[in-house]
Amino acid sequence: MVLRLRLIYDGFRRAVWNMALDEALLSSCVERGEAALRIYGFSPSAVTLGRFRPLSDVDLDYASRIGVEVVRRPTGGGTVFHDEAGEVTYSLVAPEDWVGPPLEAYRRICGGIVAAAEALGVEAVYKAPNDVLARGGKFSGSAQLRRGGCVLQHGTFMYATRLGLARRLLRKWGRVTTLEAAAGRRIGFYAAAAALVEGITGSLGAEAFRDGFRLEEIEAAGRIVERYFRDGFSIVPGKPV
């Protein structure tokens, strides 16, 4: 049986809404058993912290001064800079039966990210459990949340992230790169997004169809945003957009 996958091209949103919509899609999966792949960006740029990461990972004063939002994710993992000028973000929700236990799901979905990079002319390798590298530098990392028999995995696809800005914002920084640096040419958001969709759907053997959010998902996301503010998940609100 082929996995039917809702494909949602969602554009750019503020950080709290991006995290809330991912969580709302996870709830839809739990309630209906539906899988979805969402492609989106952050505007303004943002830093997301894994659920258990300390605030000391980020220079909060600098983030506030330059209008970079800082939020906590519902998933685990590390601390990530999402550059509105250089990153595509993906989220995938699916029944656990379709993607497998945590390490298998990482391997399968990250295999799609490897394929996406290679379609853009960049040789890439999967580094367990949740990273993808090019020329020894990380350009994609992912994190998971499991609930009610479904999994949410979301992650980065850094095609032209401003690494100097990221180093100013994040106090812990490993060896990273971008797809444009590895390819030696311009790539751009839409080319990166298209490659990512083809790579992930191909890796999962899924059949994707274009879709949008349901009204109840938007309403659920609104309630989740309220919870994020109440629970302190929104740390630096950024500038109005």
Explain what the structure shows.
The longest helix has 18 residues, at 15-32. Strand 8 (131-134) and strand 9 (137-147) form a beta hairpin. The protein has an eight-stranded mixed beta sheet, with helices on both faces. The protein is 38% helix and 31% strand. The model has no long low-confidence stretch (mean pLDDT 95). The chain has one domain: 2-Layer Sandwich (BirA Bifunctional Protein, domain 2). By secondary structure, it is α+β, with helices and mostly antiparallel strands.
Number of helices: 8
CATH architecture: 2-Layer Sandwich
Largest beta sheet: what is the strand line-up? 7-8-9-10-6-2-1-11
- Level-1 CATH class name: Alpha Beta
Largest sheet: 8 strands, mixed
Per CATH, what is the topology? BirA Bifunctional Protein, domain 2
Uncertain residue segments: none
Radius of gyration: 17 Å
Instruction: Using the alpha-carbon principal axes, give the shape.
Output: globular
Number of strands: 12
CATH superfamily: Bira Bifunctional Protein, Domain 2
Q: What share of residues are in beta strands? A: 25-35%
Q: What is the average of the pLDDT values? A: 95
Helix content: 25-40%
This entry's quaternary arrangement is: single chain
Structure classification: alpha+beta
Element-by-element helix/strand order: EHEEHEEEHHEEEEHHHEHE
Number of domains: 1
**Distance between the first and last residues' Cα:** 43 Å
Can you summarize this structure?
With 241 residues, the chain is an alpha+beta fold.
List the helices and strands and how they pair.
Blueprint: E1 3-13, H1 15-32, E2 35-42, E3 46-49, H2 60-66, E4 69-72, E5 79-82, E6 87-95, H3 96-99, H4 102-119, E7 125-127, E8 131-134, E9 137-147, E10 150-158, H5 163-169, H6 179-183, H7 189-204, E11 206-210, H8 215-231, E12 234-236
Parallel strand pairs: 1-2, 1-11, 3-4
Antiparallel strand pairs: 2-6, 3-5, 4-12, 6-10, 7-8, 8-9, 9-10
Helix pairs in contact: 1-8, 4-7
